[in-house]
Amino acid sequence: MAFGPYTAFIAGAFGFTALVLGALILNGWRDGRAQLRALAELQDERSSNR
């Protein structure tokens, strides 16, 4: 498959898109873990106050 004179632009756009999607996935994964830690901490505080 030949893209012609737009090969660099197309490859760059795909690369940038892959980079952004990877960053979004990583950020979501890290935030999910942080939310689970915060939830566990809140549950511990709630159970110790009873």
UniProtKB/TrEMBL annotation:
<keyword id="KW-1003">Cell membrane</keyword>
<comment type="similarity">
    <text>Belongs to the CcmD/CycX/HelD family.</text>
</comment>
<keyword id="KW-0201">Cytochrome c-type biogenesis</keyword>
<keyword id="KW-1133">Transmembrane helix</keyword>
<keyword id="KW-0997">Cell inner membrane</keyword>
<keyword id="KW-0812">Transmembrane</keyword>
<keyword id="KW-0813">Transport</keyword>
<comment type="function">
    <text>Required for the export of heme to the periplasm for the biogenesis of c-type cytochromes.</text>
</comment>
<keyword id="KW-0472">Membrane</keyword>
<dbReference type="Pfam" id="PF04995">
    <property type="entry name" value="CcmD"/>
</dbReference>
<dbReference type="InterPro" id="IPR007078">
    <property type="entry name" value="Haem_export_protD_CcmD"/>
</dbReference>
<protein>
    <recommendedName>
        <fullName>Heme exporter protein D</fullName>
    </recommendedName>
</protein>
<feature type="transmembrane region" description="Helical">
    <location>
        <begin position="6"/>
        <end position="29"/>
    </location>
</feature>
